[in-house]
Amino acid sequence: MDQAIDRQGRVYLCSITPSNSKAIMSAIPACPQCTMENTYPDGANYVCADCGHEWPMVQSAVTDDNAGAVVKDANGNVLSDGDAVVLIKDLKVKGSSITLKMGTKIKSIRLVGGDHEVDCKMDAGSFMLKACYLRKA
pTM score > 0.85 for this model? Predict the structure, then answer.
């Protein structure tokens, strides 16, 4: 059997029949643990003949990490897009002489993923802030 690799890096086993010379392709992925291509299907799983690792043929649905994430302010209130918040302490902006003062009201926040969950615009500029320094107004 011959092997072919597509643009996404999937390995296909090709067998050429002498009668019609067409390649019959079957998508058998390489082992995710040892990256060897010596794998075969076994029931509902793929099995690596080299390391013995098994993984499911049907991948589970990709879930968005931020879809179920709940962002809470310093008091434990749930924040959502468009909320107004207030800073609970002075925050020095790295790489700048700007200090965001306690009590500053921020309107229309936007929640994003990552360490700094809140994206907002203020008079001093656009900032990414941690929710633990904010309280819902």
Answer: no
